[in-house]
Predict the 3D structure of the following.
Amino acid sequence: MSQKQNAIQVAQIVQSVKQDIIFGRLRPRERLIEEDITAQFEASRHVVRAAMNELEQLGLVTRRPNKGVTVRDFTVDEVEQIYEIRAFLQTEAANQIPMPASPQLISALEAIHAEYCAAHDKGELQRVCSLNNQFHRTIWEACKNQYLATLIDRVWTETIGIRCYGIGDPALLALARREHGEMIEMLRSGDREGFLRLTVEHMKPSLEAYKRAHGGWANRTTGQADSRVRVPA
């Protein structure tokens, strides 16, 4: 198989695993079986291992002694620290976006939002997820600091396993849709204070859904701050 074909297969495996994590088909600490992936994609072990390496670099999986590759889980502290960093980075990006936003940015966001709403109405959750990513990346890139935008994107990717808890909840999806529209209007009007507030508030619903689904936060009362966030049996 050519190098180009190998690269295509690696990308396909990475995208497939990402989607399985997003939609809960793969859960934290669940093992990825190399033999199963090799058979599913009719790929060589070399290709599968390259895909696992890329997923590890993205922060989506971990390698553990005697356990192989597993979907990444988080300690309570890790979740809170990651979201603290997300809030810091996204607030900085929001501060750097020229306001009122340019007509070109508003037009781009409105087009994405229209597609997002159409996909939401049709229940096309995979499309909704993809357009959600595109919407936020378009905002971050408007800060003109590509290093900052890249850092945000890195942390955004690492939190897929947390953010996915808002995908299957109709109420949270409806809230996200409404807040996207509010973000556009704030950018249009130059309401930086409101935009900064919403930039942080917009992250919280999926995080709270993740907390409700796991028992890790209860350990705060017992002093076990570093315990792993557990998936209920």
